[in-house]
Amino acid sequence: MRLKLKVWRQKDQLDSGRLVDYQMDNISEDSSFLEMLDLLNESLVEKGDEPIAFDHDCREGICGMCSLTINGIPHGPEKLTTACQLHMRSFKNGETITIEPFRSKPFKITKDLIVDRSAFDKIIEAGGFISVRTGSAPDGNAIPISKSDSDYAMDAAACIGCAACVAACKNSSAMLFTSAKISQLNSLPQGKPEKDRRLLSMVSEMDRSGFGNCTNYGECHAVCPKGISVDFIANLNRDYAKASVKNLLKTIG
Amino acid sequence: MEQISPFKRLIASSLGKKYLMALTGFVLVGFVIAHMLGNIQIFLGPEAINTYASKLQNLPIAIKWGFRLFLLTAVAIHVWTAVLLTIENKQARPNNYADEKTVQASYASRTMPITGLIVLCFIIFHILHYTAQVIFDYKDLHYDLNGEHMHDVYSMMVLGFSHWWVSIFYIIAMGLLCMHLSHGISSMFQSMGWSNEKWRGVLKITAILIGAVLFIGFSSIPVAIMMGMIKPIIGH
Ligand code: HEM
Ligand code: FES
C-alpha cells in the first residue's frame, strides 16, 4: 500500500505543534497500524531525524496505552478496536491518514502523540478504591454476589482507561470513564459502604481537572474499544443526585 | 473539599448544572405542549379561542403572575446553565482537532446552544408581540360573546400573522425549537438518570415525534392564516 500520513509533531509541552507530511510505500495490508508507525520511525532514525513518539505497551488491546486519533476518530475507523489492534486493511491504498493525539485540556501533550493522562489517575485516587485491611486473601465466594450484579460490575470493569471517550467527546467530558469506574465499585458489596463518598469525591475531582460537561452526544460509547455503555452515565447521574441529597441532609458517614 | 456547603457543591458540579438544565427543560416542554394545544383552538373559530384566552386572562392575579414568574425563572435558569455549560465545554478543548469527525451524534445535539439562543430571541420577540403588544398595538380589539366583553385574541392572531415576515420568523423559530427538543427531550431523561439501554431508543424516537407534532401544531396557525384558511371576522 501507498499512503500519505499527516502526523502531529510537537517537541514538548510548550511547543505549539504542527502536522507534518510523510510518504509511506510498500506497506502490507496485514501489518498493524503501530507496525506501520514503527517502520516510519525506522526510516526517520536512518535519516537521522527524531522518531515519532507514541504511546503503546501490550499491543493486545488490553492495557489502554495506545492513544491515537486517526482521521478524526480516537482509535481509528474500526468499532470496538484499539489503535494497536487496527490493521492497515482498514484503509484504502493511496489514502491520506491524519494522526493526532487525544485532545483535551487536562491531558497535556508531552511529545508528538503522547499525552499525559494522569488526570484519570487523580479521579481514581479520589475514590476509585475500597478501604479494607490488608492481610491474607479472603476466601473466594465468602461474600455472595448475584449473577446480575457481577455481570454489571464486569461490564463496567471492561474499561481500560484509554481515554478515547474524552478524546471523542465534543465537550471533552470524562463521564464515561468516571461512571464506569464508579459503577464497577458501587454495584458490589465491597464497594457499597463508601458508595456516596465515592460518588461525591470522584465527580468533584473530574470537574476540578477541567473536563467538560456531558451533553449526551453518545460519541464516547461509539468510539469506546470496549463498548462501555452510556447506561453507566445514567446510573451515575441518578446516584449522584441521591448522594447529593444525602449530603444536604448530612446523612453520609 | 468538605468546607464548601453541600448545596453549593451540588449546584456548582457539572451534574448539578445538568439537573437544573433538565428540570427547567422539563417545565418548559410541559408549557410548550400545553401552549400548542391551547393555540390550535383557533381552528375551532373565534368563540372557542377567545373564551379560552379570556379564562386565562381572568385568572386571579397571584396565579397569573405566579405562573409567569415561574416560567421566566425556568427560562432564566435554563439559559444561565446553558451559557455556563457551553463556555466550560469550549474551554475543555482549547486546541481543536485538525481533522474533526462526528461518529453518530445528531445534528440537533450538536447545535443545542445555537438553536437555544435563537429560541431565546424568539421568546423575547413573542412576548413583546403578543403579551406586551408593543410591536403592533392590538389592545383595541374586542369581542362580544352573549354580552360578555373580552379581548379579541382571534383577530389579534389573524392580524399578527398577516405580516409575512412575522409568520416566517415564527415558523423558523418553531422549527429550531423542535430541533432543540428532538435532542433535548431524550437528553433530559439521560441527564436525570432515567434512561437505559432498553428505553433509550424509545426515548429518542418519542423526542423526535414530540418535536414534529409541536412543529406541525404551532406552524399550522401562521400557515393557515397566510393561506386564508383562517379568515378575519367579518366587520372587523
Ligand atoms: C431560551 C433559550 C434556550 C437556550 C439558550 C437553550 C440552550 C440549551 C442548551 C445549551 C442545552 C444543553 C444541551 C444538551 O444538554 O445537550 C439545552 C438543553 C435542553 N433544552 Fe434548551 N435552551 C433554550 C430554550 C429551551 C426551551 C424554550 C426549551 C423547552 C421548550 C428547552 C428545552 C431543553 C431541554 C429539554 C434540554 C435537555 C436538558 C438535558 O440535556 O439535560 N430549551 N438547552
Ligand atoms: S497498546 Fe495496549 S491497548 Fe493498545
Helix proportion of chain A: 25-40%
pLDDT < 50 stretches of chain A: none
CATH fold naming of chain B: 3 helical TM bundles of succinate and fumarate reductases
- The strands making up the biggest β-sheet of chain B line up spatially as 1-2
Order of helices and strands of chain A: EEHEEEEEHHHHHHH
Oligomerization category of the chains in this entry? heterodimer
Which sequence of SSEs, written as H and E, runs from N to C of chain B? HHHHHHEEHHH
CATH superfamily of the largest domain in chain A: Alpha-helical ferredoxin
Q: Which structural category fits the helices and strands of chain B?
A: mainly alpha
Give the terminus-to-terminus CA distance of chain A.
62 Å
The shape of chain A is: elongated
Estimated structural class of chain A:
alpha+beta
Cα separation of the termini of chain B: 68 Å
Overview of the molecule:
The complex is a heterodimer of chains A (253) and B (236). Chain A folds into 2 domains: 3-111, Beta-grasp domain (Ubiquitin-like (UB roll), Roll); 117-131 and 143-252, Fumarate Reductase Iron-sulfur Protein, Chain B, domain 2. A 5-stranded mixed sheet of chain A has the order 2-1-5-3-4. A two-stranded antiparallel ribbon of chain A has the order 6-7. Chain A has 253 residues and is α+β, with helices and mostly antiparallel strands. Chain A has 8 helices and 7 strands, in the order E-E-H-E-E-E-E-E-H-H-H-H-H-H-H. In chain A, a hairpin with a 2-residue loop joins strand 3 and strand 4. Chain B is mainly alpha-helical. Chain B has a single domain (7-226), classed as Fumarate reductase/succinate dehydrogenase, transmembrane subunit (3 helical TM bundles of succinate and fumarate reductases, Up-down Bundle), CATH 1.20.1300.10. Chain B contains 9 helices and 2 strands. Chain B has helices at 6-12, 14-39, 46-57, 61-91, 107-110, 112-131, 153-160, 164-191, 197-226; strands at 142-145, 148-151. At the A-B interface, helix 6, helix 7 and helix 8 of A face helix 1, helix 2, helix 4 and helix 8 of B. Bound molecules: protoporphyrin IX containing FE and FE2/S2 (inorganic) cluster. Protoporphyrin IX containing FE is lined by residues 18, 21-22, 25, 28-29, 32, 75, 78-79, 82, 86, 109, 112-113, 116-117, 119-120, 123, 180-181, 183-185, 187-188, 191 of chain B.
